[in-house]
Design brief:
It contains eight helices and five strands. The chain is α/β, with parallel strands linked by helices. It has a five-stranded parallel sheet with strand order 2-1-3-4-5, with helices on both faces. The mean pLDDT is 95.
Length: 195
Amino acid sequence: MPEASMRGSAVQFVANHKHSSLIVMDKISVEGVGQIIMLLSEARKKRKQIFICGNGGSAATASHFANDLGKGASCGRPTRFRVYALTDNMPWITALANDIGYSHIFVEQLKNHAEPNDLLIAFSGSGNSPNIVEAVKWANDNGVITIGITGRPGGELGRLARHPHFVESSQMAHIEEAHFLIQHMIAYSFMDVAE
């Protein structure tokens, strides 16, 4: 294929992806994101622990979200978030995966740390990751408030989470893009507002 034709194909792909991304982003529920902000605000006020998890790209989103809440929305402020990404302790994760099973990497950490009325925020594009499902089931059974951020149709996470939030797409790239935007909207709602 000639270089000019390849460049034209690449530009067209980018234009199409950008267009479909913007449609998905525009459908993000501001009421739903606002509800998550209120739950986080209440957890911070009551000094409750916030746990965040996800796999693959969603693991990166979970870690980034914990960073933004733990540093940007906490440093220099009178109240701080007690936040931890369950994705970040690789020795613990690999020991659990190796010795018990990958579906237990998040729930076993929760069993050590989570208490009633803490928060669990789970990101999953499909909503069917076994380790996410196990963590949410245990959290629900043990009084932890569960927030599920997923795509459509939402899978088990959409059904199990006490506070489900859906991205209106089944395309993984758009779901993950929207999840990243959602976590930034939430984190910056605390960072950009003076206390």
